[in-house]
Specification:
single chain; alpha+beta; Pdz3 Domain; 4-stranded antiparallel β-sheet; about 25% strand; elongated
Length: about 425
């Protein structure tokens, strides 16, 4: 039920905003909007204002806008208020308004989250964990080292360290650290990495819990955000990585977690989950936030929205080069699963998911398949280049081909979704 509810919320918000874009653009352009529906299927209730019937439909997923004269298979009168009677530029504006509103939604959510929460910062400069056989490991760095500088540039926080490393991807970096109070320098080879995190290090994290997943193992055991774990099964826990390794090594069994809450000791009995032989309790470490202004919030939101949309480009590139795995492909079932998990982690996770999918949907909708917005824009482009209108027969054939392609893709993705869900 959580998955279904979360799926309905995510899809309805994204599709509603998308259709709102078409609606507002059509109204602005003088096109009659006959129906604006929240949901799909039969009409349950609604109210008519002017030419538009605003309705709530039976199936609470998505929605749609129906404009006068937007279906080439219907009898058209040639009136100015019909969609297909408008100039190509106006039609392109109405079509593009849907994806544009999805981008606006993503930006609005990310800007709001940046203003309310701020940005995550890592004030420490101590190394908490080093992965074996990585550039950091091979350079001789180890947990407990405190980073002082990179190529002579002072490092005040872990964020500074990551920035310095990113600037040296593809080359080398001389890292000065303090080990037991004594200075030492190492040379890190970053020639074969594409991003700073591939260097193989994590910042030190204490054992304070951040988000605790609702109805997850830790939550059911009584742990809450802000608890500081002190021991597991009587064994003292030094840091987050120590905590993580102990839990991973205890799949599917009861463990006793000692903690401090507001300075008072407590104890929780937690049944760990078992994921392919590794234990988990579904918690995250606590993070620090730094408040930022409107300009920085907007700038960061633009970068985040672009990064979310670029994931679709990466996916199609891997798909075309036959490097996409089945786990990368997801439809309604997968979206419902991810949405349900996000809802259980918290409102901020849910909002971030809506923003991410909205940005990606904007790009997907611009694919030149006739049924999608990109297909409509493609046909308008063909008309503009050829300087001849596409005939109704050509338009209908294009839409039928696009519809068959889209249905085939939906069925394939749904089959993958269901088979993956059943296999779990």
């Amino acid at each position: 039920m959580v998955y279904i509810l979360a799926f309905a919320i995510v899809v309805s918000v994204i599709v509603f905003v998308h259709e709102l874009g078409h609606f507002l653009a059509a109204k602005k352009s003088g096109v009659k909007v006959l129906t604006f529906s929240i949901g799909m299927g039969p009409r349950i209730l609604g109210i008519k204002r002017g030419d538009t019937d605003y309705i709530v439909s039976a199936i609470p997923f998505g929605g749609y806008v129906r404009m006068a004269g937007d279906n080439p298979e219907e009898d058209l009168t040639g009136q100015d208020w019909e969609f297909l009677s408008k100039p190509k530029g106006v039609r392109a504006f109405i079509v593009a308004a849907g994806p544009l509103m999805n981008i606006v939604l993503a930006l609005a959510i990310f800007i709001g989250m940046n203003l309310v929460l701020g940005v995550v910062v890592t004030p420490t400069r101590e190394i908490g964990y080093v992965i074996e056989d990585t550039p950091a490991w091979e350079a001789g760095l180890s947990a407990g080292d405190e980073v002082v500088s990179v190529d002579g540039n002072p490092v005040e926080t872990w964020d500074d360290f990551e920035t310095e490393l990113q600037d040296r991807v593809g080359g080398q970096a001389t890292v000065e650290v303090l080990r037991g109070g004594a200075p030492m320098s190492v040379v890190m080879d970053l020639e074969n990495v594409e991003a700073y995190y591939e260097a193989g290090m994590y910042a030190y994290r204490d054992t304070e819990l951040g988000d605790v997943k609702w109805r997850g193992p830790a939550y059911r055991g009584g742990l809450r955000e802000g608890d500081v774990v002190t021991a597991i099964d009587g064994e003292p826990v030094r840091d987050w990585f120590d905590l993580r390794e102990i839990i991973i090594a205890a799949p599917g069994r009861e463990i006793v977690i000692d903690y401090e809450r507001d300075g008072r000791p407590g104890s929780a009995t937690v049944m760990t989950g078992d994921r392919e032989g590794s234990g988990f309790i579904e918690v995250s470490y606590a993070v620090d936030y730094e408040r930022i202004g409107l300009f920085e919030s907007v700038k960061l939101a633009v970068l985040t929205t672009r990064a979310a949309a670029e994931q679709i480009v990466v996916f199609f590139h891997r798909l075309l080069t036959l490097r996409a795995s089945r786990d990368m492909i997801g439809g309604p079932v997968r979206i419902g699963e991810i949405a349900g998990e996000s809802m259980r982690w918290g409102v901020d996770y849910m909002l971030a998911l809506i923003a991410t999918i909205s940005a990606q949907l904007a790009l997907i909708n611009l694919i030149p398949i006739p049924v999608l917005d990109g297909g409509h824009l493609f046909l308008l482009g063909v008309e503009a280049v050829s300087r001849r209108p596409i005939t109704m027969r050509q338009r209908i054939i294009a839409h039928q081909i696009g519809f068959v392609f889209l249905i085939g893709a939906i069925l394939t993705i749904t089959f993958i979704d269901v088979s993956r869900f059943i296999s779990k």
